[in-house]
Amino acid sequence: EGLALKPGSFDDALASARASGRNVRAALLDVDLRDVGAPVLRHVLPEKADSVPTVLLLQVESVTNVAAETPRLLRMVLTDGHSECIAVEHERLPGIDADTLRGTKVQILPRARVVAGHVLCTPDTFRVLGGHVPGLADEHARIIAARREWEAKPILTRFSPGGQDASTEEHAADEDLALVSELAFTPSGGNPRAPPKFRIDGAGRQ
User: Fold this and answer.
1) Which residue among 64, 100, 111, 133 is least packed, with the fewest CB closer than 10 Å?
2) Which residues pair with 105 in a beta bridge?
3) What's the rounded Cα separation, in Å, for the pair 115 and 120?
4) Residues ≥6 apart with Cβ < 8 Å to 121
5) Exposed/middle/buried for 168, CB within 10 Å: 0-12, 13-18, 19+?
6) How far apart are the C-alpha atoms of 66 and 82, rounded to whole Å?
């Protein structure tokens, strides 16, 4: 399924699955790729890649909706356990949203386009496999709860005295937002759609 593991990691997962009575696939989805994953992104997605050449099984680090209005636009940070890539929701993806927990496993299929280092994902090239990494998921669930509490506050109390947004989870890096906004989002066989409008942070930057 595109999962690349360090030597010996599969045998460890197999032994663990047998001891717990679980199937191997479920056990592998619940492991932290930072502990068992082999480095594949640097080889599969070189700097000038224009498409994904093979199946990749990666782990969610973060999912952010960078569109201020509908339709949504998800920006996903994915990792093989060693390095990261940025994936962008090119067409609406089922099974994933801004509350998807860290550690969730996803699969990127061949032929996914790569533009300016961003993997453009569609339902034909992106699948959510699931999984639950206890430490990562629990920590992320607390972050989501804190974010929802922050969102429930009156808008004028959300910012620090210096004018900076008090929440870092709600915004991607400025340079990434600027880059995504410049991409030509053109679904296969369809007409180009206008880039989404982005949130403006507390300092007045897009």
Assistant:
1) 111
2) 59, 130
3) 7
4) 76, 87, 88, 89, 90, 91, 93, 108, 112
5) exposed
6) 25
pTM above 0.85, yes or no: no
Report d(CA 168, CA 181) in Å as an integer. 20
Cα–Cα distances in Å, from 178 out to 20, 36, 78, 174, 183? 47, 34, 19, 6, 9
pLDDT tens by residue, the chain, 206 residues:
778 877 777 777 677 667 777 777 888 888 899 988 899 999 899 888 899 999 999 999 999 999 978 789 999 999 999 999 999 999 999 999 999 999 999 999 999 999 999 999 999 999 999 998 988 878 878 887 887 888 777 766 655 555 555 444 444 444 554 444 444 344 444 444 454 544 444 444 44
Q: Measure the CA–CA gap between 69 and 72, rounded to whole angstroms.
A: 7
Given a contact cutoff of 8 angstroms between Cβ atoms, the answer to whether 188 and 122 are in contact is: yes
CA-based torsion, 142, 145, 150, 151: positive or negative:
positive
Rounded Cα gap, residues 135 and 183, in angstroms: 35
The SS3 of residue 180 is: helix
